[in-house]
Design goal:
With 432 residues, this protein is of the alpha/beta class. Helices cover 31% and strands 17% of the residues. InterPro entries: LRR_dom_sf.
Length: 432
């Protein structure tokens, strides 16, 4: 007796969701040989996710170069592209040397990857990545034909795009006078896109300037640098009703040249050029987050006035060193009342070990945060220390507040003091 079609589909989907890719694929291959009723669903699940990456860092069992080449050849030869829902491509695979049994004269590995792209008509997630994204190399534009071909594709069901390219390469299409036009056309042709992750400043330096009216009209989440986020500001579509989450990848804030890095970040935030009223969550992604001082706070407020969650910033010495009232009476803030809806704030990042003179002062400053943000209900600080000794551990402090702004609960973990360079550790009784 054969199982119902729907039950076979649910079972194969569950198998594909296991954590071990090797076991998943072996099980589905075996199921595809059981019977005619199992074969279609087993093949659909088996080829629903394709990773053209010989190293496949997300897997405990990377396929390797030979295995990846064999997989691509099988997909092309058996026309399995229509099964693919999630496609991930590493551009370096375009130059992979094929084994003799997979070589097709006049049809290179890069051609096979392009063929897979063109025929994956049911694609929902597309990730294209250059492993050498920040580095120069002798051979330029590796996988350039893959990127250009992707720009020409249309995937009716696509909802997620991740594009990580080499900032030193030029992926411009031959018929495009501006480097970003190919990408902008692609985004305009996919109005149902809900999640976008970009990384390559040179490729996305062009502002749309209203020339692409359907651009990102249903976008919910964005990740990229502030420069790349300009693609949001230039949209003439009603963006702002759907966009709720933004992650901004910023250059690490160098402790030796913090003032310049801070100035650059404030300038970059100004590039967004308009408020995004629907954004509720903002995260700065960097090894060392920016300090939430007056300039950063105002820049964030002007871009995202209805923000409810802010992550990835660091607590500045100014807030710790001076009473909270100084910020409240600063002329630039007095008339704006920044981030009135903020209810969750997370301080994270690397710090120099003795950036703050007293950890007790940091704790007291965080207790007063509701004076600056009346809607704040939780605040946390997780500080890893630059150049710590092996005995050091991160500092963690988590506070919750009631409706009156008073501390409701507090949990903390202090790093051990180092005897050689630190004052003697005090007990809790002594501190009291």
């Amino acid at each position: 007796m054969s199982l119902p079609f729907e039950l076979c589909a649910r079972i194969t989907d569950e198998i594909r969701a296991w954590d071990d890719r090797l076991v998943e694929e072996k099980t589905l291959v075996n199921l595809s040989a059981v019977s005619k009723s199992w074969r279609p669903e087993a093949l659909r699940a088996l080829w629903s996710k394709v990773v053209i990456d010989d190293k496949d860092m997300g897997s405990e069992n990377p396929r390797g170069t030979k295995g990846t080449i064999a997989m691509v050849s099988i997909i092309v030869q058996n026309e399995y592209c229509h099964y693919i829902r999630d496609l991930r491509i590493i551009l370096e695979m375009a130059n992979a040397t094929e084994e003799p049994q997979y070589v097709v004269p006049g049809f290179s590995m890069e051609d096979k990857i392009v063929y897979t792209l063109y025929n994956s008509t049911n694609l929902r997630e597309l990730h294209i990545r250059d492993l050498a994204m920040h580095h120069s190399r002798i051979e330029k534009n590796i996988g350039g034909m893959i990127v250009q071909s992707a720009y020409r594709c249309r995937f009716p069901q696509l909802h997620s795009l991740k594009l990580i390219l080499n900032q030193n390469d030029d992926y411009r299409e031959p018929d495009c006078s501006k480097s970003g036009d190919g990408l902008l056309r692609f985004l305009t042709n996919h109005p149902d896109l809900t999640h976008l992750n970009l990384s390559a400043e040179d490729e996305y330096s062009l502002k749309p300037a209203g020339r692409f009216p359907r651009l990102l009209s249903n976008l919910k989440g964005f990740e990229g640098s502030p420069e790349e986020a300009r693609i949001l500001a230039g949209s003439s579509s009603p963006l702002g009703s759907s966009l709720t989450n933004i992650t901004l990848n910023i250059h690490p804030m160098d402790a030796l040249d913090y003032d310049h890095a801070h100035w650059c970040l404030v300038e970059d935030l100004g590039l967004l050029d308009k408020p995004f009223n629907s954004v509720r969550s903002l995260e700065f992604s960097a090894m060392c987050g920016p300090y939430l001082d007056v300039d950063i706070l105002l820049a964030v407020h002007r871009c995202f006035p209805n923000l409810e969650e802010l992550r990835g910033v660091a607590i500045p010495p100014e807030i710790v060193r001076y009473p909270q009232e100084i910020l409240l009476t600063t002329g630039t803030i007095r008339d704006e009342k920044p981030l009135p809806k903020l209810n969750k704030l997370e301080f994270t990042g690397d710090e120099l070990i003795y950036l703050h003179e007293s950890e007790g002062d940091v704790e007291e400053a965080m207790k007063k945060l509701p004076r600056l943000f009346p809607s704040l209900r939780s605040a946390s600080r997780h500080a890893c220390y630059a150049y710590p000794s092996r005995a050091d551990s991160p500092d963690r402090l988590f506070l919750t507040f009631d409706d009156n702004g008073s501390v409701k609960t507090m949990m903390k973990e202090k790093r051990p003091q180092r005897a050689a360079t630190s004052p003697p550790a005090q007990t809790e009784e002594a501190e009291e």
